[in-house]
Fold this protein.
Amino acid sequence: MKDPKKNKAELVASETKGPEPTEILHTHLQRAFDCLQERDGELFAFLSQPKRIITVNFPVEMDDGSLSMFHGYRVIHNRLLGPGKGGIRFHPQLTCDEVCRLAALMTWKSALIDVPFGGAKGGVTCDTKTLSENELRHITRRFITELGDDIGPNTDIPAPDLYTNEQTMAWVYDTYDIMHPGRNNLPAVTGKPLELGGSLGRYEATGRGCLYATERFLTRADIPGLKSLQGARVVIQGFGNVGSVAAWLFQEAGAVILAVSDTQGGIFHEKGIDLKAATEFKQAHGTLVGLPETRSITNDDLLLLDCDILIPAALDNQIREDNAEKICAKLVVEAANGPATPKADHILNRRGIPLLPDILANAGGVMVSYFEWVQNIENEKWDLDEVNDKLKVKMHHGVDVVFDRWRNLVSRFTTAADQKGDQDEYPDLRTAALVVAIERLARVTRERGIWP
Ligand code: NAD
């Protein structure tokens, strides 16, 4: 029997150099707690631990008749505000610790943008590039069967993430529905195909949310030479759901997309990438690399390109201590989850490069997942303008709340630092966003009380 986890891990070992997920989570949380007026060690302990970790190991019969063992996880970080909510990721390097960290991010994200969900995440350690559609369907169905009643419309609601998509969510729904006949199971999973209860605008929601957040931020922050997206030079790492949608929408808004990339590497054109040609080339060849009239570059070099806005939209730990000093962008927008490490945050902050953090910048996905959940419960279908208008209002509000909180933290910090002569840990936007989220969670914890 094969173990795909062992087979594939080495192939991609270079993809995620960086600190351990738990260390990242604790560092971010600690920075935010240090800014709170009332510091509460017990609350820190409560919010830094996942509520429940489920590990499942299961065999799948492969197309060649052999059996392979797969390892899956589902983590509920917190259900203070509502049912758990978070994606299902298929990736060869997925670990339980990483899922725990991603689940915590979902708790902060939902609290920050004020949707009634808790934080959850899940996934299976596997390499989708080496699996047939048949094998992927078997893995998905078996994973959901193993989770049984641990997911559901009022307990924990999955969605797509890295290397899962609408098709995966259709299989999730179908499996869950077969296991729970005679009731409306559509709200048990979001990111479904349109004809299966999906919401208009959900596929584009994360990229569109990034656009709205960036546009709003540019009107509030005074970044020299970058007042709007008109003519802004944008570099995007990743060309999947989030990266490709962001590329199209930023271009429509007047930006020039200088470079995009996938696992094989990046492509660059100083006058802007022809996105239609790039999309067709990727469909035909499985990669962007080699698109005529573009220069091929590595993913490492892509991050260091001279540009106005850098959008990492692929993996975590891409901007680190070893390359943050060389980032040339005027603004970094975290479309992916966790693309910058805490040390990179510190370096960018010291260099005066603002970073719109993941829990704000990519919150459009969970926002429209919430809209889908509401439509499924009410048996309604909202039109696209209604979805996008609601998303815009929420994203703009999220940016305003974080920006105002950041200014408030900075003015408090500047006064304190003047007294201490210490300017080193100037609060950044991630810290401000986390402070807003944690304060909301702290209030709800006190209101609900600790059981029993
Ligand atoms: P996806 O599977 O659709 O696309 C991933 C993209 O990343 C692909 O283009 C792939 O080629 C590229 N990629 C993978 N490894 C890479 C590497 N080492 N270097 C460069 N590119 C690489 O996934 P997605 O849904 O677009 O998710 C991307 C990120 O956005 C993830 O961090 C995910 O957690 C986050 N996110 C997704 C959603 C959503 O709604 N899908 C919501 C919030 C956050």
